[in-house]
Amino acid sequence: MLDLRYVTENLDEVRAQIARRSDKYAPVLDEVAKLAVARRAALTELEQLRATRNEASTAMAKLDKKSPEFAEKRDALKISGDRVKELEAKDKALEAELEAVVLGVPNLPDASTPDGKDETANVVVKTWGDKPTFAFEPKDHADLGVALGILDFERAVKISGARFTVLLGAAARLERALLSFMMDVHANEHGYTEIWPPALVLPSAMRGTGQLPKFASDMFKTERTKLADTATEEERASNDLYLAPTAEVPVTNFHGDEIFEAGDLPRSYVAYTACFRAEAGSYGKDTKGLIRQHQFDKVELVRFCKAGEGPAQLDALRGHAERILEKLGLHYRTVQLCAGDMGFGAKKCFDLEVWLPGQNAYREISSCSWFGDFQARRAKIRYREEPKGKPQLAHTLNGSGLAIGRTLVAILEQYQQADGSVRVPDALRPYMGGLETITKA
User: Per the residue annotation, which of 15, 20, 292, 423 is the catalytic one?
Assistant: First the structure.
């Protein structure tokens, strides 16, 4: 979240920056302004009453405790004290209400983020490789996978409903191969520490990275039907858990409410999790194939750094994600997102878009974001510049390295052959038992 004091004291500037994203947040900022005025009024009265009360206390100390004047001032002081308590409670309530409203305000775009309201204003900053050419009409991955007998959508519906897929044979092995390949490259070549986090997370973890309260409808939430009367406090606290929408959530919160000591940063992790998203509001979009699923696999890169190091760390993270595509020989482009197309918490963001011949389109396969201290403020992640120095908020970054299912899609479509078979990229063959070509079983 944004710094509450900064927002209320620099509201015009915040309005201008948020307007770069969208006009839809204007009512939220109007509510912030209204609450800020009410809180300032309460604080002004509170400060005046405290000053008056202190003066009255000083004057009372000079009076005879048995005099009528002393009793009169004592009674007045009591009334003043009651009003001070009321105003203190009001200030606390208004602060809590302000914090709740500010949770709904997105991050301020970095100055280097281009202006624009939607994806049409995004800027292509890099293109790698050539679009594959075919002497035949390329198929999309869904048709290829079904014909090869390695993707089963119908049976997945029978098991779990819409937006699920069963991978069979070579596709299942390819998914596993991609997971191992990505983790090996990021750990061994890029220096990330491997971490295997839980997939179930507390509401506080979801709030820490910005998924809550803004995107509650996009998440899968677990709930026990009934807790025993003898349930422990810990069991009650974990009654409502969320299925992680991305490893960003557990890995970023791994250092929640902690202070990195001098020399600890930057810190980088690579993690795999199955990811779960309700895809609220996306019905009718990408209903065919693996592009938009309720459950999918992803390797995530998460980095922590000091203030001032964010842009350089973002370039490094983005380069690591791009390297996976290049090692796999997949044609892609990198675009910098404009202010209006960025995610809620990002200050600056690059999307990697892989070419899908079957769709004749580029599709996102990784989103690499720098959040500044937006997440760190929520999750209380801090660092010291020097031993025993004053803690300050860290900066966080993350990006897919990569979305495994979408990488599988790109391989099927870019490496397809005229006979319906699919060549296995050279880099993956050691992970596929030497298999060179996927053919119908």
Answer: 292
292 an active-site residue?
yes
Catalytic site residue from 21, 277, 318, 378: 277
**Cα–chain center distance at 332:** 23
Torsion (CA) 176, 179, 185, 187 in degrees, nearest 10: -120
The pTM assigned to this predicted structure is 0.91
SS3 per-residue string spanning 38-77: HHHHHHHHHHHHHHHHHHHHHHHCCCCCCCHHHHHHHHHH
Instruction: Give me the catalytic one of 173, 353, 406, 413.
Output: 406
Q: What is the DSSP string of 244-304?
A: -SSTHHHHHHTTTTEEEPTT--SEEEEEEEEEE---TT-TTSS-SSSSS-SEEEEEEEEEE
Domains of the chain listed by start with CATH number: 4-102 (1.10.287), 119-438 (3.30.930.10)
> For residue 196, what pLDDT band results from cuts at 50, 70 and 90?
very high
Q: Is 406 a catalytic residue?
A: yes
Per-residue pLDDT tens digits for 334-378: 999 999 999 999 999 999 999 999 999 999 999 999 999 999 999
Burial of 258 (0-12, 13-18, 19+ CB in 10 A): middle
The catalytically annotated residue of 268, 366, 367, 369 is 367
